[in-house]
Amino acid sequence: xxxxxxxxxxxxxxxxxxxxxxxxxxxxxxxxxxxxxxxxxxxxxxxxxxxxxxxxxxxxxxxxxxxxxxxxxxxxxxxxxxxxxxxxxxxxxxxxxxxxxxxxxx
Length: 106
Prior knowledge:
TTHA0802/YceI-like_sf, globular, Lipid/polyisoprenoid-bd_YceI, YceI family protein, 52% strand, 8% helix, mainly beta, single chain, Lipocalin
């Protein structure tokens, strides 16, 4: 889980907009969560399927896993913000948004 209010960039006004009601609405939906529904190996590598919850809205997501060394992995995907529950911001942010997560296994 991620704290929806933890978004930080180099612009405090942008941070307030992103965590505000128009985008993440961190006041009403304080967490962003991912729940895995399965992991599978393909010819291209490992994929992690799951459900992403943003603004109380669930959407199916498939993350591509890449080993970065030791127990460190990088998971990435393109998430379509409207399907993920963020319908506003047409002039500010594209519909497809690339996300990248650093994962550490103990």
